[in-house]
Amino acid sequence: METLDAIRLRCSLKTKLTGREVPPDVVEAILREACLAPSARNSQPWRFVVVRGRTAIDALADAGLPESSAVIRRAPVLVVACARPADGVVVGGLNYCLYDVGSAVQNLLLAATDRGLATHLIANFDEAAVKRVLHIPDDARAVVLTPLAWPDAASYEEAAAERLSQRSRLPFEEVVFEGAWGGA
Ligand SMILES: Cc1cc2nc3c(=O)[nH]c(=O)nc-3n(C[C@H](O)[C@H](O)[C@H](O)COP(=O)(O)O)c2cc1C
């Protein structure tokens, strides 16, 4: 898949996951690509915890996932993206660590989509419980997690078709201004 196809086809597919194994080298490649993201002063405040296999995923889900996201248990791999705020660069009072983690996570999503893997970001979880189960230290935040799973269709495109047909975005003119905020 080409980069632009991955950007256009990526969507949240938690209802389409299968438990089919995702090879460890594929997961590692995706995480290495995530880590190629830019970050303020190259601070790289991201950390990723890979959770693999039924027992570990069930333990995490039992402790920290709401019912609305229970379907992601099906995935063979969950990745929890964390931030280390102490490593974040502060500019104008703004700590850019979440921005940087978001950049790395977007790389991860596109790298997964490129390989035909389904993802779905989840932020609605019990952070304290997730941190406890995964031994994430006090000075790190668990920001978002995603399953990595092969979709339950003949192709990624087929699995994503329904979701993409319902995709909604704000009108372009509402979010992009020419010259100055609000336009000329
Ligand atoms: C930071 C963040 C947190 C999210 N948390 C959740 C979540 O807790 N549960 C969920 O079902 N989807 C969650 N999503 C998925 C969004 O709802 C989804 O990205 C959005 O509706 C756009 O749909 P798309 O990803 O298919 O383009 C989250 C997305 C982001 C970026």
Short description:
The protein has 184 residues and is an alpha+beta fold. The protein contains 7 helices and 5 strands. It has a 3-stranded antiparallel β-sheet with strand order 1-2-5. Strands 3-4 form a two-stranded antiparallel sheet.
CATH class: Alpha Beta
Largest sheet: 3 strands, antiparallel
Question: Rough shape?
Answer: globular
CATH superfamily: NADH Oxidase
Strand content: 5-15%
Number of domains: 1
The computed structural class is alpha+beta
What does this structure look like?
- By secondary structure, the protein is an alpha+beta fold.
- It has one domain (3-166): NADH Oxidase (3-Layer(aba) Sandwich).
- Helices cover 38% and strands 14% of the residues.
- The chain has seven helices and five strands; from the N terminus they run ααβαβββααβαα.
- The protein has helices at 3-9, 24-34, 54-64, 97-114, 127-134, 156-165, 172-175, and strands at residues 46-52, 77-83, 90-91, 94-95, 141-148.
- A three-stranded antiparallel β-sheet has the order 1-2-5. Strands 3-4 form a two-stranded antiparallel sheet.
- The chain starts with a helix and ends in a 9-residue tail after the last helix.
- The structure holds flavin mononucleotide.
- Flavin mononucleotide is lined by residues 11-12, 69, 121-124, 144, 163, 167.
